[in-house]
Design goal:
The protein is α+β, with helices and mostly antiparallel strands. The protein has one domain. The protein is 25% helix and 29% strand. A 5-stranded antiparallel β-sheet has the order 1-2-5-4-3, with helices on both faces. Strand 1 and strand 2 form a beta hairpin. The radius of gyration is 16 Å and the shape is globular. The chain starts with a strand and ends in a 9-residue tail after the last helix.
Length: 119
C-alpha cells in the first residue's frame, strides 16, 4: 500500500491498493460501513450531505464504488477508484467528516465562513 501525501492525519487517508488486497479491503469496508452505497457499474442518488462529500472527492465514475456510515454527526466514508491505466491498482479515499446542518451552513455564509455566536 502506498499512502498518498495529501492524507491528513486521522481525518483522511488516500492510498493506492494492489489488486490482491482489494477483496480483504472490501470485506473490511462492508463489515464496518455496510454494503456499498454505490457499486461499480451502477448509478445512485445520495442525500445532500453525502453528495457534498462525493463531490469534494471529484465525483464518482461508473467503475467506482462508495461506502459510508453515519454515526451521530460523523460521516465515515470510503471510495474505491480502480485505475484505468493499471488494472492492478485502486485508489482508496477514506475519511471522517462532520455532518453540518443547513442552519449552520446558512450562519457560516452570513459570517464569512465562520458560524455566528449565539448568546
Amino acid at each position: 500500500m502506498e499512502i498518498r501525501p495529501n492524507s491528513q492525519g486521522v481525518e483522511y487517508l488516500e492510498a493506492v491498493i494492489n489488486k490482491e488486497n482489494i477483496g480483504l479491503l472490501e470485506s473490511l469496508l462492508k463489515k464496518h460501513l455496510g454494503g456499498a452505497a454505490k457499486e461499480p457499474g451502477k448509478k445512485t442518488n445520495f442525500p445532500e450531505a453525502i453528495q457534498e462529500i462525493v463531490d469534494s472527492l471529484g465525483g464518482l465514475w461508473e467503475g467506482q464504488s462508495f461506502f459510508y456510515k453515519q454515526e451521530n454527526t460523523d460521516i465515515i466514508f470510503a471510495a474505491l477508484w480502480p485505475w484505468e491505466t493499471d488494472p492492478n491498482k485502486t485508489t482508496l479515499k477514506s475519511g471522517v467528516r462532520k455532518l453540518v446542518s443547513k442552519e449552520t451552513k446558512r450562519a457560516a455564509g452570513r459570517t464569512g465562513g465562520k458560524p455566528s455566536k449565539i448568546d
